[in-house]
């Protein structure tokens, strides 16, 4: 069941944080950056942000997508789905919901070039690669956009 998550709600906020931290740990271990200060700073930034979260919840919160709405544009900041739930199509459901809910908006998203599942997912929905940029030495991200 897809729903907007009120991140001011303490219980849901804890669930969101748990999924985010687990996702960051998995990514960090895969990329060899586990435990670096920047990782903890990024987690804190997201936890304290004013973004809107869309969550997919059945018995537990299985994934979330955070985004910011600007003038005619949606910036997808973070798609957080556990690998087991990603294979169940949770990421696809979240992106489909957001695209359907904000018809007529332009979408932008950036993701690490090493995040092959996310890149494949965005391309499936018609996102076009715009540019590559380096966020840290040896860490490259891809920026995508989509006119919906």
Classify the oligomer: single chain
What is the rounded distance between the termini?
23 Å
- As laid out across the biggest beta sheet, the strand order is 1-2-3-4-5-7-6
Based on CA atoms alone, the radius of gyration comes out at 15 Å
Count of individual helical segments: 5
Q: Which spans have pLDDT < 50 for at least 5 consecutive residues?
A: none
Shape: globular
Q: What's the order of the H and E elements?
A: EHHEEEHHEHEE
- Backbone structural class: alpha+beta
Largest sheet: 7 strands, mixed
Q: Tell how many strands the DSSP assignment holds.
A: 7
Helix content: 25-40%
Q: What portion of residues belong to β-strands?
A: 35-45%
Report the average pLDDT across residues. 78
Could you characterize the architecture of this molecule?
There is one protein chain. By secondary structure, this protein is of the alpha+beta class. It is built from 5 helices and 7 strands. A hairpin with a 2-residue loop joins strand 3 and strand 4. It is globular and about 35 Å long. The mean pLDDT is 78.
